[in-house]
Design a protein that fits this description.
Keywords: SH3 domain, Signal. InterPro entries: MIA (IPR043369), SH3-like_dom_sf (IPR036028), SH3_domain (IPR001452). This is SH3 domain-containing protein. With about 130 residues, this protein is mainly beta. Helices cover about 10% and strands about 30% of the residues. Strands 1, 2, 3, 4, 5, 6 and 7 form a seven-stranded antiparallel β-sheet that branches. Strand 3 and strand 4 form a beta hairpin. The protein is globular.
Length: about 130
């Protein structure tokens, strides 16, 4: 519980302020390939997680999460991935960040052998003004 609270506080502190703003969570990330297009591992959510903004994904305990990258350095508490939806789900799959403490890896698919610099598009969050 303390780890989830710590991750939630970090999300609030790192949340973007203005529409279209991006804030870097980390300078480096580890991936399976140069484009981070292949999942590194499969994980299961050990707790519910509510995304604080559009850079993150939300999930419920027990959902399967595919991990595509792991942030390095100051952002090492966060991974990026996609939640596996139900077969008849109307919600499209999307990629986003989540605290690594909210999941348990169950299967390694590929080695995270490629370490890359992050760029502004890794953390871009477009919020429409209404």
């Amino acid at each position: 519980m303390a780890a989830a609270l710590r991750a939630a506080l970090l999300c609030v502190l790192l949340a973007p302020g203005a529409a279209g703003q991006h804030d870097s969570l980390a300078e480096r990330k580890a991936c399976a390939d140069e484009e981070c297009s292949y999942p590194i591992s499969v994980a299961v959510a050990v707790s519910d997680y509510v995304a604080p903004d559009c850079r993150f994904i939300h999930f419920q305990r027990g959902q399967v999460v595919y991990v595509f990258s792991k942030l390095r350095g100051r952002g090492k508490l966060f991974w990026s991935g996609s939640v596996r939806g139900d077969y008849y789900s109307e919600q499209p799959a999307r990629l986003g960040y989540f605290p690594s403490s909210a999941v348990r890896e169950t299967r390694t698919l590929r080695r995270a052998a490629v370490e890359l610099d992050t760029d502004e598009w890794d953390f871009y969050c477009h919020r429409s003004r209404r």
